[in-house]
Amino acid sequence: MTGGDRLADKNPALQRLERLTRTSPALFPFLVRDVPGLSQWTDSPESARGWTLRTATWALDPSFDLAAEYSASLRRALSASKEGGTLIAVGRFAADEALPLCPAEIAVASAGGGWDELPSALASEGVRSLTRVEAGGGGLTAWLAGPPPMPGPETEERLCLALARSAVLAGKPVDLGPYLAPSTRPLDDWLHLKRHQDASLAVQYRRRHVNLHELDWLIDLALLRSPVIARPLRTPDRLLALRDAGFLSPIEREALEDAWRFLTETQARLALLGCPDDVVPENPDKLARLAESFGMTEGNGFLAAFEGYRDVTHSIFQEGIQRLH
Known about the structure:
The protein has helices at about 5-10, 10-25, 30, 35-45, 50-60, 65-80, 120, 125-135, 155-160, 175-180, 185-200, 205, 210-225, 235-245, 250-275, 285-295, 300-325, and strands spanning about 85-90, 105-110, 140-145, 165-170. By secondary structure, the chain is an alpha+beta fold. It has a 4-stranded mixed sheet, with helices on one face. The longest helix has 26 residues, at about 300-325. Residues about 115-155 have low confidence and may be disordered.
Protein backbone atom coordinates (compact mmCIF):
# COMPACT_ATOMS: atom_id res chain seq x y z
CA MET A 1 0.00 0.00 0.00
CA THR A 2 1.37 3.41 -0.94
CA GLY A 3 1.46 6.47 1.26
CA GLY A 4 -1.26 8.03 -0.91
CA ASP A 5 -3.47 4.96 -0.40
CA ARG A 6 -2.98 5.13 3.36
CA LEU A 7 -3.83 8.86 3.35
CA ALA A 8 -7.02 8.23 1.35
CA ASP A 9 -8.00 5.48 3.79
CA LYS A 10 -7.81 7.93 6.69
CA ASN A 11 -9.21 11.05 4.99
CA PRO A 12 -12.95 10.93 4.16
CA ALA A 13 -12.63 13.93 1.79
CA LEU A 14 -9.95 12.17 -0.26
CA GLN A 15 -11.96 8.96 -0.20
CA ARG A 16 -14.93 10.79 -1.75
CA LEU A 17 -12.76 12.41 -4.38
CA GLU A 18 -10.99 9.14 -5.20
CA ARG A 19 -14.28 7.29 -5.61
CA LEU A 20 -15.63 10.06 -7.82
CA THR A 21 -12.50 9.80 -9.97
CA ARG A 22 -13.15 6.08 -10.53
CA THR A 23 -16.90 6.18 -11.08
CA SER A 24 -17.60 9.63 -12.60
CA PRO A 25 -14.59 10.74 -14.68
CA ALA A 26 -16.80 12.52 -17.26
CA LEU A 27 -17.77 15.02 -14.58
CA PHE A 28 -14.24 16.27 -13.94
CA PRO A 29 -13.90 18.58 -16.99
CA PHE A 30 -16.79 20.54 -15.47
CA LEU A 31 -15.62 20.27 -11.87
CA VAL A 32 -12.16 21.66 -12.54
CA ARG A 33 -13.74 24.93 -13.68
CA ASP A 34 -14.64 25.54 -10.03
CA VAL A 35 -11.60 24.47 -8.02
CA PRO A 36 -12.58 26.43 -4.87
CA GLY A 37 -16.06 24.90 -5.01
CA LEU A 38 -14.60 21.44 -5.53
CA SER A 39 -12.30 21.92 -2.56
CA GLN A 40 -15.27 22.89 -0.40
CA TRP A 41 -17.29 19.95 -1.75
CA THR A 42 -14.66 17.40 -0.73
CA ASP A 43 -14.98 18.60 2.86
CA SER A 44 -18.74 19.19 2.88
CA PRO A 45 -20.76 17.65 -0.01
CA GLU A 46 -24.06 18.86 1.45
CA SER A 47 -22.92 22.47 0.87
CA ALA A 48 -22.66 21.96 -2.92
CA ARG A 49 -23.86 24.74 -5.20
CA GLY A 50 -24.34 24.49 -8.97
CA TRP A 51 -25.31 21.46 -11.02
CA THR A 52 -21.79 20.01 -11.34
CA LEU A 53 -21.11 19.85 -7.60
CA ARG A 54 -24.64 18.68 -6.89
CA THR A 55 -24.16 15.96 -9.48
CA ALA A 56 -21.02 14.92 -7.62
CA THR A 57 -23.11 14.72 -4.44
CA TRP A 58 -25.71 12.59 -6.24
CA ALA A 59 -23.01 10.30 -7.66
CA LEU A 60 -22.10 9.32 -4.11
CA ASP A 61 -25.61 9.53 -2.65
CA PRO A 62 -28.46 8.87 -5.16
CA SER A 63 -31.09 9.68 -2.52
CA PHE A 64 -30.36 13.32 -3.35
CA ASP A 65 -33.14 14.54 -5.73
CA LEU A 66 -30.90 15.74 -8.53
CA ALA A 67 -33.36 15.36 -11.43
CA ALA A 68 -35.89 17.92 -10.19
CA GLU A 69 -33.20 20.50 -9.44
CA TYR A 70 -31.33 19.90 -12.68
CA SER A 71 -34.48 20.16 -14.77
CA ALA A 72 -35.36 23.37 -12.93
CA SER A 73 -31.93 24.83 -13.80
CA LEU A 74 -32.47 24.00 -17.47
CA ARG A 75 -35.92 25.57 -17.36
CA ARG A 76 -34.49 28.77 -15.90
CA ALA A 77 -31.83 28.93 -18.60
CA LEU A 78 -34.34 28.38 -21.40
CA SER A 79 -37.17 30.53 -20.04
CA ALA A 80 -35.07 33.61 -20.75
CA SER A 81 -34.87 32.67 -24.42
CA LYS A 82 -35.50 35.38 -27.01
CA GLU A 83 -36.69 32.78 -29.52
CA GLY A 84 -39.59 34.14 -31.56
CA GLY A 85 -41.38 30.81 -31.47
CA THR A 86 -42.02 28.33 -28.69
CA LEU A 87 -39.61 26.05 -26.82
CA ILE A 88 -41.28 22.87 -25.55
CA ALA A 89 -39.75 20.41 -23.11
CA VAL A 90 -40.60 16.84 -24.02
CA GLY A 91 -40.20 13.44 -22.41
CA ARG A 92 -38.27 13.17 -19.18
CA PHE A 93 -37.30 16.86 -19.32
CA ALA A 94 -40.98 17.87 -19.24
CA ALA A 95 -41.44 15.56 -16.26
CA ASP A 96 -38.45 17.02 -14.36
CA GLU A 97 -36.70 13.66 -14.68
CA ALA A 98 -33.71 14.81 -16.76
CA LEU A 99 -30.24 14.06 -15.42
CA PRO A 100 -26.92 15.76 -16.27
CA LEU A 101 -24.91 14.46 -19.25
CA CYS A 102 -27.99 12.57 -20.51
CA PRO A 103 -30.00 14.04 -23.41
CA ALA A 104 -32.85 16.37 -22.45
CA GLU A 105 -35.11 16.85 -25.45
CA ILE A 106 -36.92 19.97 -26.54
CA ALA A 107 -39.12 20.71 -29.55
CA VAL A 108 -39.17 24.07 -31.29
CA ALA A 109 -42.35 25.46 -32.84
CA SER A 110 -42.34 28.49 -35.13
CA ALA A 111 -43.70 31.89 -34.12
CA GLY A 112 -46.82 31.13 -36.17
CA GLY A 113 -47.55 28.08 -34.06
CA GLY A 114 -46.44 25.54 -36.67
CA TRP A 115 -43.37 23.35 -36.73
CA ASP A 116 -40.39 25.21 -38.13
CA GLU A 117 -37.55 23.97 -40.29
CA LEU A 118 -34.33 23.06 -38.50
CA PRO A 119 -31.90 25.50 -40.24
CA SER A 120 -33.98 28.62 -39.60
CA ALA A 121 -34.72 27.61 -36.03
CA LEU A 122 -31.07 26.96 -35.22
CA ALA A 123 -30.17 30.34 -36.72
CA SER A 124 -32.19 32.13 -34.06
CA GLU A 125 -30.61 33.55 -30.92
CA GLY A 126 -32.98 31.58 -28.72
CA VAL A 127 -31.88 28.19 -30.00
CA ARG A 128 -28.24 29.26 -30.18
CA SER A 129 -28.52 29.72 -26.43
CA LEU A 130 -29.17 25.96 -26.17
CA THR A 131 -25.60 25.39 -27.33
CA ARG A 132 -24.37 27.34 -24.34
CA VAL A 133 -26.52 25.23 -22.01
CA GLU A 134 -25.19 22.07 -23.65
CA ALA A 135 -21.61 23.28 -23.23
CA GLY A 136 -22.35 23.46 -19.52
CA GLY A 137 -23.21 19.78 -19.48
CA GLY A 138 -26.88 20.11 -20.27
CA GLY A 139 -26.85 17.61 -23.09
CA LEU A 140 -29.89 19.25 -24.68
CA THR A 141 -31.14 17.83 -27.97
CA ALA A 142 -33.29 20.08 -30.15
CA TRP A 143 -35.50 18.35 -32.73
CA LEU A 144 -38.11 19.57 -35.14
CA ALA A 145 -40.61 18.18 -37.62
CA GLY A 146 -41.73 19.50 -40.97
CA PRO A 147 -44.51 22.11 -41.08
CA PRO A 148 -48.17 21.02 -41.29
CA PRO A 149 -49.68 19.26 -43.10
CA MET A 150 -47.60 16.38 -41.80
CA PRO A 151 -45.46 14.80 -44.54
CA GLY A 152 -46.50 11.30 -43.55
CA PRO A 153 -48.16 9.17 -40.86
CA GLU A 154 -44.85 8.08 -39.34
CA THR A 155 -43.95 11.70 -38.60
CA GLU A 156 -47.30 12.20 -36.93
CA GLU A 157 -46.80 9.07 -34.84
CA ARG A 158 -43.36 10.24 -33.73
CA LEU A 159 -44.76 13.62 -32.75
CA CYS A 160 -47.63 12.06 -30.81
CA LEU A 161 -45.20 9.88 -28.86
CA ALA A 162 -42.76 12.73 -28.22
CA LEU A 163 -45.44 15.20 -27.18
CA ALA A 164 -47.24 12.70 -24.95
CA ARG A 165 -45.20 14.39 -22.19
CA SER A 166 -44.61 18.03 -22.98
CA ALA A 167 -44.49 21.42 -21.28
CA VAL A 168 -44.01 24.87 -22.82
CA LEU A 169 -40.80 26.49 -21.58
CA ALA A 170 -40.82 29.82 -23.39
CA GLY A 171 -42.64 31.62 -26.16
CA LYS A 172 -46.22 31.85 -27.32
CA PRO A 173 -48.79 29.11 -26.62
CA VAL A 174 -48.95 26.43 -29.31
CA ASP A 175 -51.86 24.08 -29.95
CA LEU A 176 -50.73 20.56 -29.09
CA GLY A 177 -54.29 19.23 -28.97
CA PRO A 178 -54.15 17.23 -32.21
CA TYR A 179 -51.17 15.29 -30.88
CA LEU A 180 -52.63 14.66 -27.43
CA ALA A 181 -56.09 13.49 -28.48
CA PRO A 182 -56.83 9.77 -28.05
CA SER A 183 -55.35 7.96 -31.02
CA THR A 184 -57.56 6.05 -33.44
CA ARG A 185 -54.61 4.85 -35.48
CA PRO A 186 -54.34 1.03 -35.61
CA LEU A 187 -52.02 -0.43 -33.01
CA ASP A 188 -50.07 -2.22 -35.74
CA ASP A 189 -48.99 1.16 -37.14
CA TRP A 190 -47.42 2.06 -33.81
CA LEU A 191 -45.77 -1.34 -33.49
CA HIS A 192 -44.39 -1.04 -37.01
CA LEU A 193 -42.66 2.17 -35.96
CA LYS A 194 -41.21 0.45 -32.89
CA ARG A 195 -39.96 -2.52 -34.94
CA HIS A 196 -38.28 -0.09 -37.30
CA GLN A 197 -36.48 1.52 -34.36
CA ASP A 198 -35.52 -1.84 -32.87
CA ALA A 199 -34.10 -3.04 -36.18
CA SER A 200 -31.49 -0.27 -36.02
CA LEU A 201 -29.94 -1.90 -32.94
CA ALA A 202 -27.19 -4.45 -33.53
CA VAL A 203 -27.74 -7.84 -31.89
CA GLN A 204 -24.81 -7.45 -29.48
CA TYR A 205 -26.00 -3.94 -28.64
CA ARG A 206 -29.54 -5.14 -27.95
CA ARG A 207 -28.27 -7.63 -25.38
CA ARG A 208 -26.94 -4.86 -23.11
CA HIS A 209 -29.31 -2.11 -24.16
CA VAL A 210 -30.70 -0.02 -21.28
CA ASN A 211 -34.29 -0.92 -22.09
CA LEU A 212 -36.15 2.20 -20.99
CA HIS A 213 -37.73 2.66 -24.40
CA GLU A 214 -40.10 -0.30 -23.96
CA LEU A 215 -41.35 1.08 -20.67
CA ASP A 216 -41.95 4.49 -22.27
CA TRP A 217 -43.58 2.90 -25.32
CA LEU A 218 -46.01 0.90 -23.21
CA ILE A 219 -47.03 3.88 -21.06
CA ASP A 220 -47.35 6.23 -24.03
CA LEU A 221 -49.40 3.81 -26.12
CA ALA A 222 -51.74 2.92 -23.26
CA LEU A 223 -52.35 6.60 -22.50
CA LEU A 224 -52.62 7.68 -26.14
CA ARG A 225 -55.24 5.04 -26.86
CA SER A 226 -57.38 5.84 -23.83
CA PRO A 227 -59.97 8.65 -23.81
CA VAL A 228 -60.37 8.60 -20.04
CA ILE A 229 -57.00 8.08 -18.32
CA ALA A 230 -55.39 11.25 -17.00
CA ARG A 231 -51.97 12.10 -18.41
CA PRO A 232 -49.57 13.10 -15.65
CA LEU A 233 -45.97 13.89 -16.57
CA ARG A 234 -43.83 12.02 -14.03
CA THR A 235 -43.25 8.34 -14.66
CA PRO A 236 -44.39 7.08 -11.21
CA ASP A 237 -47.63 9.07 -11.59
CA ARG A 238 -48.17 7.72 -15.10
CA LEU A 239 -47.78 4.16 -13.83
CA LEU A 240 -50.24 4.87 -11.02
CA ALA A 241 -52.76 6.20 -13.56
CA LEU A 242 -52.48 2.97 -15.56
CA ARG A 243 -52.87 0.90 -12.40
CA ASP A 244 -55.94 2.88 -11.31
CA ALA A 245 -57.43 2.39 -14.77
CA GLY A 246 -56.96 -1.37 -14.47
CA PHE A 247 -54.41 -1.58 -17.27
CA LEU A 248 -51.59 -2.60 -14.91
CA SER A 249 -51.82 -4.79 -11.85
CA PRO A 250 -50.40 -3.42 -8.58
CA ILE A 251 -47.50 -5.89 -8.87
CA GLU A 252 -46.75 -4.82 -12.45
CA ARG A 253 -46.85 -1.15 -11.51
CA GLU A 254 -44.40 -1.67 -8.67
CA ALA A 255 -42.09 -3.80 -10.83
CA LEU A 256 -42.04 -1.21 -13.62
CA GLU A 257 -41.36 1.65 -11.21
CA ASP A 258 -38.46 -0.28 -9.66
CA ALA A 259 -37.10 -1.04 -13.15
CA TRP A 260 -37.51 2.58 -14.22
CA ARG A 261 -35.57 3.85 -11.19
CA PHE A 262 -32.73 1.36 -11.68
CA LEU A 263 -32.44 1.78 -15.45
CA THR A 264 -32.66 5.59 -15.25
CA GLU A 265 -29.86 5.61 -12.68
CA THR A 266 -27.90 3.23 -14.93
CA GLN A 267 -28.15 5.70 -17.81
CA ALA A 268 -26.93 8.57 -15.65
CA ARG A 269 -24.04 6.58 -14.20
CA LEU A 270 -22.99 5.38 -17.67
CA ALA A 271 -22.85 9.02 -18.80
CA LEU A 272 -20.80 9.99 -15.73
CA LEU A 273 -18.46 7.09 -16.51
CA GLY A 274 -17.92 8.53 -19.99
CA CYS A 275 -19.75 5.71 -21.77
CA PRO A 276 -22.76 5.86 -24.11
CA ASP A 277 -25.74 6.17 -21.78
CA ASP A 278 -27.86 3.50 -23.47
CA VAL A 279 -25.66 0.38 -23.43
CA VAL A 280 -23.87 -1.44 -20.60
CA PRO A 281 -20.16 -1.82 -21.45
CA GLU A 282 -18.49 -5.18 -21.95
CA ASN A 283 -15.10 -3.88 -20.84
CA PRO A 284 -14.47 -5.53 -17.43
CA ASP A 285 -12.85 -2.43 -15.90
CA LYS A 286 -15.71 -0.13 -16.90
CA LEU A 287 -18.25 -2.71 -15.78
CA ALA A 288 -16.52 -2.96 -12.40
CA ARG A 289 -16.56 0.83 -12.04
CA LEU A 290 -20.23 0.93 -12.97
CA ALA A 291 -20.95 -1.70 -10.33
CA GLU A 292 -18.95 0.28 -7.75
CA SER A 293 -21.02 3.39 -8.51
CA PHE A 294 -24.07 1.36 -7.42
CA GLY A 295 -22.28 0.22 -4.26
CA MET A 296 -21.78 -3.30 -5.62
CA THR A 297 -18.55 -5.22 -5.25
CA GLU A 298 -18.24 -6.78 -8.70
CA GLY A 299 -19.53 -6.43 -12.26
CA ASN A 300 -21.39 -9.73 -12.43
CA GLY A 301 -23.60 -8.64 -9.55
CA PHE A 302 -24.56 -5.50 -11.45
CA LEU A 303 -25.20 -7.49 -14.65
CA ALA A 304 -27.53 -9.86 -12.79
CA ALA A 305 -29.56 -6.93 -11.43
CA PHE A 306 -29.55 -5.14 -14.77
CA GLU A 307 -30.71 -8.20 -16.71
CA GLY A 308 -33.43 -8.85 -14.15
CA TYR A 309 -34.92 -5.36 -14.49
CA ARG A 310 -34.53 -5.43 -18.27
CA ASP A 311 -36.27 -8.80 -18.58
CA VAL A 312 -39.14 -7.80 -16.29
CA THR A 313 -39.70 -4.67 -18.35
CA HIS A 314 -39.71 -6.66 -21.59
CA SER A 315 -42.12 -9.26 -20.22
CA ILE A 316 -44.64 -6.68 -18.97
CA PHE A 317 -44.28 -4.76 -22.24
CA GLN A 318 -45.23 -7.84 -24.26
CA GLU A 319 -48.18 -8.64 -22.03
CA GLY A 320 -49.33 -5.00 -22.08
CA ILE A 321 -49.24 -4.86 -25.87
CA GLN A 322 -51.51 -7.91 -25.99
CA ARG A 323 -54.01 -6.06 -23.78
CA LEU A 324 -54.06 -3.15 -26.22
CA HIS A 325 -55.14 -5.34 -29.15
